[in-house]
Each structure stands twice: as structure tokens, then as C-alpha cells.
Amino acid sequence: MGKKNKAQQQQQAAAPGPEEAESSSAPAAEPRPPMDVVYCGVCDWPLEYCEFGSRFTKCKEWLQEENLELYNKYYSEDALAARLGTISLEAQSKLEEDTAKKEAKAEAKAEAEMKKKMASQVIIKRMERTKRKHVTVISGLDKFGIDLKKAAKQFASKFATGASVTKATAGATDDEIVVQGDVCDEVLEMIEEGVGILKGIPAENVEIVEEKRKKGGE
Q: How far apart are the first and last CA of the chain?
């Protein structure tokens, strides 16, 4: 009799209560679908953050050309009125003034960088190692925003030879790409045609020079 009562108590303890049974039978929450985030083609930020950047006007112009529906969502008169409804006229005026200053500063910086870039030179140097062996040394690509490691990899693949990035040597100020073999003319052609990542370099900013091996005793 004692064993029977003990078995019944164990069964009652193992059986789930009404609340537990209800929670276990409840359907699992469905996962939320991923958010569809649209990024600006000018500043690369989500559209909601363009107004905090320094190229807000250009961001708006880009969006108006690319997606008029989204432009109206963010910048139509009704949308702006809803967003600015709680801002005082003084605060709104200051916001517009600050935005204009940021944009002017960013444009001046971009113009200065462009002038510096246009004054830069890419030097393709043919260097004689022995009477029959040459290497091609390219410097100045980084001034035009070219990733030197990627460019070296592109040259190595193109010419099926060794290509590496080396630190600036004595008398030089830029890191260089050293390509085994005389491929100066081919490199110049690649730059002129904008092959791969070699884009945005004016042909008049590229020069080929030759450096012969110094003889012993000179």
C-alpha cells in the first residue's frame, strides 16, 4: 500500500501543471524578417543618416534622381513639416546654417585633395639589374587612391611574374611596386585603359623613366 501511494505521488509530480501544459503547446514566435536598409550612393550611409553628413545636399540630389518615392518619403514638404514641427524657427535656422558650413568645408577639402592628386605623378621606372635582366618599379599609384597590394597582385597575374610592394628606398618618398621583368610599356597601357583597379589616373600624369645599372668604380 505504501509503495502504491509512493508511485502515485511520483506520477503526479512528473505530470505537468495546467500552466506548463499551456506554455508548452503555445506556438513558437515567428522570426522577424530582416530589415531592408537602403544606403546612399554619395556618403554610403543609410538614408536616415545622410542629414548628419557633410554632403547632405548632394545626398538629396542623388536620391531624387535614383528613387523619387524614397525622396518624397524623407524630403517632401509634408515629411519635412512632420520632422521640423517640434523644432523652433531659431533651431531650424541654426541647423540649416551648420549644414551649409559642413558642406562648404567638405567641398573645399575635396577640391584641395583633387588639386593635390592632379599634381601627383606616377613614375614607371625601368631598372637594369644585369645586362639581360630588368625590373619595373612603379611609384605614385597610392596618390590616386590605388591599393598597392591589390595592384601588385593584378600585375603578377597579368604578367605571370613576381610583383611585390616595397618600402620607399633612399631618395624616394612613396612605397613602390616592383615587378620582375621589363613591362613598362604594358603597365603604361594598363593605366591608360583603366584596367582593373588602375582607374582615375590621367595619362599625362604618368611617366616612364630608365635607370641603368651603375658600373663598378663609378
A: 116
213 and 128 Cβ atoms separated by less than 8 Å: yes
Residue 77's identity, in one-letter code, is E
Q: Are 170 and 153 in contact (CB under 8 A)?
A: no
Q: Report the C-alpha gap between 218 and 214 in whole angstroms.
A: 7
- Strands 206-211 and 122-128, by their bridges, are parallel
Q: List all residues 6 or more positions away from 149 whose beta carbon is below 8 Å from its beta carbon.
A: 165
Question: 76-95: per-residue pLDDT in tens?
Answer: 877 777 766 655 556 666 76
User: What are the residue ranges of helices labelled H in 15-50?
Assistant: 18-25
What would the pLDDT profile of 92-151 be if each residue is shown by its tens digit? Answer: 667 677 777 777 787 777 777 777 666 688 999 998 887 778 999 999 898 888 999 999
Q: Check: CB of residue 188 under 8 Å from CB of residue 208.
A: yes
Instruction: Provide the whole-model pTM.
Output: 0.49
Q: Please state, in angstroms and rounded to a whole number, the distance separating the CA atoms of residues 113 and 99.
A: 21
Q: Are 57 and 44 in contact (CB under 8 A)?
A: no
Cell, residue 85:
514641427
Which one-letter amino acid corresponds to residue 37? Answer: V
d(CA 201, CA 108): 21
